[in-house]
Amino acid sequence: MKASKTILKHIFVTLFVAFFALAFGPFYLESSPKASASGITESDILEFDGTYDWETNLDVKTTSSDYITYSDFRDTYCLAATSASACASAANGKYIRFDTAEELYRFSMDVSFEEIYETGNPTE
Asked: What's the CA gap between 78 and 71, in Å, rounded?
C-alpha cells in the first residue's frame, strides 16, 4: 500500500513537470524579434599565427662587463658607510650575480633585519 502511494507520487510529479515544460517552454524559448542571424564570412575567422601582441625581444647580455658579482659589489662598491644612492649608481646598468652559495648566504644576512650590525660595528 505504501509502495503504491510512493509510485503514484512519482507519476504525479513526473506528469506535472512534463505539463509545465510543454505549457510554458515555448514562452522561454521564444526568440527576440530584434535578433537577426548573420552568416560568418571568411574574413571573420582569425587564425593564430603564434605571436602575441605583448611579446618583446629580450635584451641578451653577452659580455661579462654587464654583470657584477655580489662579493665585488658588497666589498668594493657598497660598504656599510656608503649611501644608498652611491650603491645604486655603482650597480647602474649592471646585473648583480650570485656565483656561490656563500654569496647568496651573505646577501640573505645583509638584508636580514635581525642580523644587522651583529658585531656592533656599523662599518663592517
From this structure: 10
Alpha carbon distance 43, 104 (integer Å)? 55
- Tell me how far CA of residue 62 lies from CA of 55, 74, 83, 95, in angstroms: 21, 23, 30, 12
Cell 668594493 belongs to 76
Q: Which of 92, 93, 124, 91 is nearest to 110 (CA)?
A: 124
- For 57-101, the pLDDT digits (tens) are 776 766 878 888 999 888 888 887 788 888 888 888 888 899 999
Cell triple for residue 30?
Answer: 521564444
CB 73 within 8 A of CB 96: yes
Structure pTM?
0.43
